[in-house]
Specification:
The protein is built from 14 helices and 6 strands. The chain is of the alpha+beta class and 298 residues long. It has 2 domains: 166 residues, Leucine-rich Repeat Variant (Alpha Horseshoe), CATH 1.25.10; 121 residues, Vaccinia Virus protein VP39 (Rossmann fold, 3-Layer(aba) Sandwich). The strands form 2 sheets. Strands 1-2-6-5 form a 4-stranded mixed beta sheet. Helix 3 packs parallel to helix 5, helix 8 runs antiparallel to helix 9 and helix 9 packs parallel to helix 11. The longest helix is centred in the middle third of the chain and has 19 residues. The chain binds S-adenosylmethionine. The site of S-adenosylmethionine has 8 residues, from loops. S-adenosylmethionine binds next to loops.
């Protein structure tokens, strides 16, 4: 019976015994067992058979072949991995390919990692980001990564925000956490929120409670469209995040609303405001902690 100890012994022989063993197997679960049992690969490991397994018709075999190729780090060959990525349909294999290429830490791989940033699988995008972030203080990489703060996926946005934007914010902090400016204390201001927030310095506020308009449900403000309303609040959330101290809070008081029908020929419309506001809050650096509260993610 095939045991882990036997596989380890073959692995260290430094010849092609392990590939001979794999090549004589017909049973997929046995091949997977051998590949899973390989562990760390010695520097003189004969890896050719792993590249051959990239063509295997069983996804689990391809996955473990890529995993082991990934363990070769800088010694692995990028070309067959890229060729497989072009037509691979299995999610796990695709992610493993990106991870293996990232682990090589080779400058010449940067264009491939940029390409992976366009993948529709957010986990692949995150793997590619991880692979790129190992190159520190690289302006070209920063130019590719920064725009992803507006990526449609929240995981991607958070990674980029923490890497580039939260650090900048922290650098700007002028006051100790528990203190703020005297001119902000005990004042009531009657003004347009976006105008007045311009005068509030970065990281000077511990808590914001806002009860913004419910779109056009009341007449105190009229927005030309629901999109225009969301964009207005987008700017407010961006500003509140800027003025909020690290780890402190924003409470948004809002609810879904119904705009009544304009005539019998039309129907009323329900707007799920809290739900629609979420992406705008998260995009601006807020971390959701409760139904109504957000914490500055910096
Ligand atoms: C849902 S109500 C909240 C009312 C408030 N909670 C109160 O008890 O008075 C929204 C308020 O936001 C105000 N508002 C609308 N647009 C504004 C803006 N751009 N800047 C400042 N306030 C605004 C409206 O006049 C309205 O009083």
């Amino acid at each position: 019976m095939l045991t882990k100890e036997y596989i380890t012994e073959l692995k260290h022989r430094g010849n092609s015994d392990i590939s001979a063993l794999v090549n004589t197997q017909r049973d997929v679960s046995t091949i997977v067992f051998i590949l899973e049992s390989l562990g760390q690969l010695p520097s003189d490991f004969h890896a050719d058979f792993l590249y051959n397994l990239l063509k295997h018709n069983h996804a689990q075999v391809r996955l473990h072949a890529v995993k082991n190729i990934g363990k070769l780090n800088g010694r692995s060959d990028t070309k067959p991995l890229l060729a497989l990525y072009q037509h691979e349909t299995d999610t796990g294999v695709r992610r493993e390919i990106v991870s293996a290429i990232g682990r090589q830490r080779k400058c010449e791989n940067k264009p491939f990692l940029y390409e992976f940033l366009n993948d529709s699988d957010p986990k692949i995008v995150c793997q590619a980001i991880r692979g790129l972030l190992v190159f520190e203080n690289d302006k070209e990489i920063e130019e590719h990564l920064r725009p992803l703060v507006n990526h449609e996926n929240e995981m991607v946005r958070t990674v980029i925000y923490k890497e580039y934007f939260a650090k900048e914010k922290t650098k700007k902090t002028a006051l100790p956490h528990a203190e703020t400016y005297d001119f902000l204390k005990n004042v009531v201001v009657n003004a347009d929120v976006l105008e007045v927030l311009k005068f509030v310095p970065e990281e000077s506020v511990h808590l914001t409670f806002t009860s913004p308009p419910y779109y056009n449900a009341r007449d105190y403000s009229i927005y030309p469209s629901y999109q225009a309303y969301l964009e207005f609040l987008d700017k407010v959330f961006q500003e509140t995040c800027r003025i909020t101290k690290e780890g402190r809070f924003l409470i948004v008081n809002t609810s879904p609303i119904i705009i009544p029908r304009i005539s019998r020929a039309h129907s009323s419309k329900r707007y799920p405001i809290p739900f629609d506001l979420h992406p705008y809050l998260v995009k601006n650096g807020w971390e959701f902690i409760d139904d109504i509260e957000f914490q500055n993610a910096a």
